[in-house]
Amino acid sequence: MEYLGEPKSIREWIEHKDEFPSDGCLHVKSDQLTISMNTLAWPEYFNPDDFSQNDYDQFDQWLSENNYRPFLSKEQIEGVIENLKQQKPKYSENRLLQALVCYWGTDAFIQL
Question: InterPro entries, from UniProt (predicted)?
């Protein structure tokens, strides 16, 4: 079974949110030590509503065996962007990256 679609950079996913999986998550390579806006991220390529617990177990195993780990979902990225806009209406791409990495690493919004 194919689990992940074609990769795009994190920048491209943010710029083209309409192509982002609505319910799924983006994934990065497990050996990715740092995240940049150029980091490639793969979208989930299946409908989570059609998955059983066994399917999810197989998916988790497949991710591990193929060197992927979850990054963020569309909802999480939109939340990070909205939080950042509330704190700093005009922010740089670098500040957005810092906010995304903060949320990814701590499951908390960045405090400016």
Answer: DUF7716
Are the CB atoms for 24 and 59 separated by under 8 Å? no
Q: Give dist(CA 66, CA 43) in Å, integer.
A: 14
Q: Exposed/middle/buried for 2, CB within 10 Å: 0-12, 13-18, 19+? A: exposed
Cα(16)–Cα(47) distance, integer angstroms: 20
Encoded amino acid at 105, one letter: G
Q: What confidence tens digit (pLDDT) does each residue in 6-62 have?
A: 899 999 999 988 777 677 789 999 998 899 999 999 988 776 677 788 888 888 898
**Calpha distance 18→102 (Å, rounded):** 24
